[in-house]
Design a protein that fits this description.
Spore Coat Polysaccharide Biosynthesis Protein SpsA, Chain A, elongated, 2 domains, 53% helix, 19 helices, alpha/beta
Amino acid sequence: MPKEIILSPEVLPKLEKVKEADIVIGIPSYNNARTIGQVIRTVDEGLAKYFPDCRSLIVNSDGGSRDETAAVAKACLTEDPRLIALAHSLHPVYKIITPYHGMPGKGSAFRTIFQIAESLGAKACAVVDASLTSITPEWIEQLVKPVLSEGFDYVSPVYFRHKYDGTITNSIVYPLTRALYGKRIRQPIGSDCGFSGQLVSFYLAEEVWHTSLARYGIEIWMATAALAGGFKICQAFLGAKVHDGADPVKDLSAMVTQVVGTVFHLMEAHQGAWLPVNGSEPIPIFGLPLEVGLEPVDVRLERLVNAYRQGVRDLSDIWKNFLPVPVMEGLERLSKANLPEFRFQDALWAKVVFEFAAAHFTKRMDREHLLKSMTPLYLGRTASFVLETQHSTAAEVETRIELLCLEYENLKPYLIEKWRG
């Protein structure tokens, strides 16, 4: 089946002029006028500093911004004296601004960038977020060098985050992905990544670009496809990831439903890859994991615990359709615990996640309702984690997460039994 070409007619002549590139850096954007200029300049600085002999291309793939993003990007690409100087060097850094087409969401932006990279025969491709305020030139080195110099296909980011930031990743996505595929990839939902030309072509050939995964699950899909496909994977420490004016999550239940639902969907698609896997192994990491200052994360413990208790009262009859008696008894006992003693044990939590995954696979009930009913359980687990680690350092919290991951791995036979049964 021939590949669908989504590049707009105005882009193709520009690619003809560039002809080929060693490195393509993509910057998806949407209403990022305040940050897009600095991100482009930082990317350009990183390419000039660390890859001066490579033919490089910067692609800003904009999703129809309603602010001045496109205008700022164009001004940055044509008026910055450093960019003009680079344009006269032996191997100039070319810049292209292109609107991406198709289904709304990051997937369309990634697909546009990947098609440009493939058409130019790029050896390495990387994508960074347009809303970043913490990006440095070193990010470009860390995301691209492992591909060009070490032969890696996928470079996953590692961010230094507040101990209560990214709790869905820490309690579900990371330990589950690690237990499934046997690789300790710390940020499977990272959006700042590096790719080999081979992996880019692999992605473009996959039948995902017109599915819901392209709307909101493209990052976890890319990581999982690389894991399941046996590609050579590493990680790059990028420091803190700070966004400009990140939108607050208005509907936590929707976020849990989308993220966890995507992971469960990928479990079904790649079961042949993960069912035989036992244990896990570390993967190489580039860069120095230095601690940096972070904004505190406000956690309202009583609110989380009350939401969990309300969930047990309201949803137990639903959960009993697929959760076994010992798990239900554990959840009910926890709902009666006082706040200081509120502890959602690792083994119970892992079994809950595995039971939901198996119920999702076997379609024991409507999948959307199933996933939404998981939200109060996730809130209870988060409250327990906060209570247990409120006086812990970042290193101690990471050790605590490691213990949870080992519990997931130890209980994988439980998952397989439920999955097959």
